[in-house]
Write a structure and sequence with these properties.
Number of strands of chain B: 11
Structural class of chain A: alpha+beta
Number of helices of chain B: 17
Radius of gyration of chain B: 22 Å
CATH superfamily of the largest domain in chain B: Metalloenzyme, LuxS/M16 peptidase-like
CATH architecture of the largest domain in chain A: 2-Layer Sandwich
Helix content of chain B: 40-55%
Number of helices of chain A: 17
Number of strands of chain A: 12
Oligomer: heterodimer
Strand content of chain A: 15-25%
Strand order of the largest sheet of chain B: 1-2-6-3-5-4
Radius of gyration of chain A: 23 Å
CATH superfamily of the largest domain in chain A: Metalloenzyme, LuxS/M16 peptidase-like
Strand content of chain B: 15-25%
Largest sheet of chain A: 6 strands, mixed
Shape of chain B: globular
CATH topology of the largest domain in chain B: Cytochrome Bc1 Complex, Chain A, domain 1
Shape of chain A: globular
Structural class of chain B: alpha+beta
CATH topology of the largest domain in chain A: Cytochrome Bc1 Complex, Chain A, domain 1
Chain lengths: 444, 450
């Protein structure tokens, strides 16, 4: 059965988007739980439904991959639930399914994350499986080779995917000598080269308690959670020295790269320098982006590119604050004959907002939306647990949810104009086009 | 790596609709229902965990109800519903919702078209008023229609024309159905979309958009009685219309296996699929629907399933292998298999291994422990479904527009509990027949055969 939505929801960087938004019903109810062994988690106790979600993340992630071994963190993320402790792969997966426990791991540029959801009745067994996955993974040859094959197949498939091609080339061009320039899931060659020793080496460097944040939501009290934290995470090293990832700024301002692909529609990705999450102008930039291209059906790009000209189905922009770099990005898909026109309109809009900022009405509307829509995003235990992680990771404070609306409301026209001049410069864009765009060729 | 496996196995669309089927839920929602004098059905699911509501209006009309030659008009109209009315100027609908801190969107499928807003509970009155307004007062200009047609053609390029895998799916649907309109893509054929105009959209709108063809579903921090009163206020005054009977061309009996071979220079990874015409909870041999959900899970639902263990783990022929069945659909359903071969393995070898597995399962049966594991998973999914504020209204909307009743949604867990192994195998034998099937081969280019 096919279901078409009126618009794509752009959840490319879900965590970031959630983080940017405002206030929840549960705002007042966040507890900091400290275990006897010194492990901290944030908890929202919500006993209405007999289940709970645990989300956790270790700072580092794919940026810890060794040179020539890109994709190691990603491969690890595929293997932790493929056999651990006394369970081989089949036994571990069977146990998860018998208990209806949902366990997942993932690696991105800055972190290695995991999630556990379980019915309350199976809580202790679920935490024990998580402990095994983190502390005693088996990395048996069958499972390693199978998951490696799966990843390589995915990489082969994505070689023809215009969106993936555009993203990879954009990051490779913007960050030529930095881990951010290399794809988190690696290349076919690098994934082939990863050994079991590489997996263990990375696991040893990556999973340390000093880089761990935990968010828990659901049917569990603080007193019940505390001992489970020690049991589950207590055996991890307190701290492991890692090489710091260098700070970096994207390069490639003004560069246009065209990749020829025989598709009727070109996929375009554009971007340049953005703002870090702790930038004093963060909230002004957030409001500004909502008006320009982040606001779904209400943004200027939507109005100019889609509504008025019918140039695209999907056009958007977003702030992407990495740990060691800050970028501002956007994308559009337009038929080959009209890509140049779409790019002209987008650059014009970026330039206009850069010079003049936004209107009073747009500022007011943006604030209303950004504050009012926040609780709508907190729609499940897992999503709230993710928010708890993001608040911790960016040091926003346990009272952040209470302060969130006032931080947004405090943004003035002058703030927006200031940050617009800095952020919205069409000449700063690095643009990648994948397709057969009429009249466009790579610069330089 | 369970998640990525599911994505590889079934694709994003299936994931998106997994939450839409009654088979993901339970008799746990305790909906309250009411019918207005003009025939509009109202369903309320109270959930007081957060002060927000989901407000949805589902129309019992979709792509399968389109007139011949007008494919895509249901979806086109869905886009045009955001244009305007005498009260709401063109393009302002979503902006008003946003200015009130809400989010909105809409969707179209074969059997239904839906519109929704997620808002703070004190905005329910506002959005319901706007939704009722556009049920009968839509104003379209020729210019709006022309621009939106271009948008939809871009949407088709993004989803389908840029993607060989999507074009292959289109070809498989067209091969599965000889007569029934499920053979036509929801978004429409390009050459037909290009000719759709204002008159087509308004004709479709006037024919089908009316309170007696709509279902209101509200979930969240509300009291049912208050929602019923609001519904009376906003939708109550709207007049019912005379609706055409909901009848589509029926399939002739299928007498031969069908095959689709799709070759495209843009394909870098070959792929194997099979689709069997299947009953649903509302159509055909519907007693098989719930047993089929369990059968699909045991055959190819995850990492402990027969197909995954056999083809991926033990024989290493494939990197993913899965089965999928959705139990809703007004007229027909499909039972799907999907396998991605390992490097160097041909699709002929894949097909032989799949057929061997199916033959063995249908002949020798499955283990009682496997059935219990699948049953546990499905029943737990009902609890997980309650955790999301947006899942329950979608389940009810999907059910009620595809011939499944509120009671059937609610009785789903009991029915899952009651399924026996004999019923599971009988359902598998009834549906997994080659004469029911379309096999699809997606291949890189013309040089390599199977």
């Amino acid at each position: 059965m096919t279901i078409l939505m009126r618009s794509f929801s752009v959840v490319v960087f879900g965590l970031t988007l959630i983080l940017l938004a405002p206030i929840s019903a549960n705002a007042a109810k966040i507890l900091e739980v400290r275990s006897p062994g010194g492990i901290t988690a944030w908890l929202v106790h919500e006993p209405t439904i007999p289940l709970l979600s645990v989300n956790f993340s270790f700072a580092g992630g794919a940026s810890l991959d060794r040179p020539g071994r890109n994709g190691t963190a990603n491969l690890v993320s595929g293997l932790l639930d493929e056999g651990a402790g006394s369970y081989d792969s089949l036994a571990f997966q069977t146990r998860l399914q018998d208990l209806a426990v949902r366990m997942s791991f993932s690696a991105d540029r800055d972190s290695f994350s995991g999630g556990l959801s379980t019915l309350s009745t199976n809580r202790d067994a679920a935490f024990e499986l998580l402990r095994l996955a983190l502390i005693e993974p088996r990395f048996e040859t069958e499972a390693v080779e199978r998951v490696r094959r799966q990843i390589i197949t995915g990489l082969v498939e994505s070689q023809e995917d215009p969106g993936t091609i555009a993203t990879r080339l954009w990051f490779a061009t913007a960050f030529p000598d930095h881990p951010y320039g290399r794809p988190s899931n690696g290349s076919i060659e690098s994934v082939k080269a990863i050994s079991t020793d590489d997996l263990r080496d990375l696991l040893g460097r990556m999973l340390a308690r000093n880089r761990l944040t935990i968010g828990v939501v659901g049917d569990i009290s603080a007193a019940e959670l505390a001992p489970l934290l020690d049991k589950t995470f207590g055996a991890l090293p307190v701290s492991v020295a890692i090489e710091p990832v260098p700070e970096v700024s994207p390069v490639g301002a003004g560069v246009l790269k065209v990749v020829q692909k025989a598709n009727p529609q070109s996929q375009v990705m554009f971007g340049g320098p953005g703002l870090k999450r702790d930038d004093p102008d963060w909230y002004a930039a957030y409001v500004l982006n909502y008006v320009l291209g982040g606001g779904g059906f209400a943004s200027r790009l939507y109005a100019e590119v889609r509504e008025k000209r019918g140039l695209a189905y999907s056009v958007y922009s977003y702030l992407y604050p990495l740990e060691h770099a800050a970028i501002y990005m956007g994308g559009v898909g337009t038929k080959n004959q009209r890509v140049a026109e779409a790019l002209t309109v987008i650059k014009e809009q970026i330039g206009l907002a850069g010079e003049n900022g936004i209107t009073e009405a747009e500022l007011v509307n943006a604030k209303t939306y950004l504050n009012g829509s926040f609780p709508l995003q907190l729609t499940s235990s897992g999503r709230i647990a993710n928010l708890l992680l993001a608040i911790q990771r960016h040091n926003l404070g346990i009272d952040y949810m209470d302060r969130r609306a006032s931080l947004i409301d405090a943004v003035t026209m002058a703030d927006v104009r200031r940050v617009a001049k800095r952020l919205l410069r069409p000449e700063n864009l690095l643009i990648v086009v994948v397709g057969e765009p009429a009249g466009l060729t790579s610069s330089n | 790596m369970t998640m990525s496996r599911i994505i590889i196995a079934f694709g994003i669309l299936s994931l998106a609709i997994a939450g839409f089927q009654p088979s993901a839920t339970a008799a746990l929602f305790h909906p309250k229902t009411h019918t207005l004098a003009n025939g509009m059905q109202v369903v309320v699911i109270e959930d007081h965990r957060a002060p927000v509501v989901t407000h949805m209006v589902w129309y019992k009309v979709g792509a399968a109800d389109e007139p011949p030659g007008k494919s895509g008009i249901a979806h086109f109209l869905e886009h045009l519903m955001f244009k305007g009315t005498p009260k709401v100027p063109s393009g302002q609908f979503s902006k008003i919702v946003a200015r009130n801190g809400g989010r909105d969107n809409a969707f179209t499928s074969y059997d239904y078209t839906g519109y929704f807003q997620n808002v703070a509970q004190d905005k329910l009155d506002l959005v319901m008023g706007m939704e009722a307004d556009r049920m009968t007062n839509l104003v379209l200009t020729a210019e709006d229609v022309d621009t939106e047609r271009a948008v939809i053609l871009e949407e088709r390029r993004s989803r389908t024309d840029n993607s060989p895998a999507a074009q292959m799916n289109e070809a498989m649907s067209a091969a599965q159905y000889l007569a029934h309109p499920y053979r036509i893509p929801v978004i429409g054929w390009k050459h037909e979309i290009e000719k759709l105009d204002q008159a087509d959209a308004l004709a479709f709108y006037r024919r089908y958009y009316a309170p007696n063809n709509a279902i209101l579903v509200v979930a969240g921090d509300v009291e049912a009685e208050a929602v019923f009163a609001l519904a009376e206020k906003h939708f109550g005054p709207l007049a019912r219309v005379s609706l055409p009977p909901r009848w589509r061309l029926q399939e002739p009996p299928q007498r031969a296996a069908r095959q689709v071979v799709f070759r495209d220079g843009r394909v870098s990874q070959a792929d194997w699929q099979r689709s069997y015409l299947a009953p649903t909870r509302a159509a055909g041999a519907s007693q098989h629907a719930i047993p089929l959900s369990l059968f699909a899970d045991m055959l190819g639902g995850g990492t402990t399933s027969r197909l995954y263990r056999g083809l991926v783990v033990e024989r290493k022929l494939a990197t993913s292998a899965g089965a999928y069945y959705s139990s809703t659909g007004l007229d027909y359903g499909r039972f799907m298999l999907h396998v991605t071969p390992s490097p160097g393995v041909g699709l002929g070898e894949i097909e032989a291994a799949v057929d061997e597995t199916i033959t063995a399962v249908l002949k020798d049966g499955l283990l009682a422990a496997d059935l219990e594991r699948s049953r546990t998973g499905l029943l737990a999914a009902a609890v997980y479904a309650r955790d999301s504020l947006f899942t329950s209204p979608r389940i009810f909307g999907d059910a009620l527009t595809t011939g499944v009743s509120v009671e059937q949604v609610e009785s789903w867990p009991d029915e899952v509990r009651a399924v026996t192994m004999e019923q599971v195998i009988a359902a598998g034998r009834a549906v997994l027949k080659m004469d029911n099937s379309v096999t699809g081969l997606l291949l890189p280019d013309a040089k390599e055969g199977k």
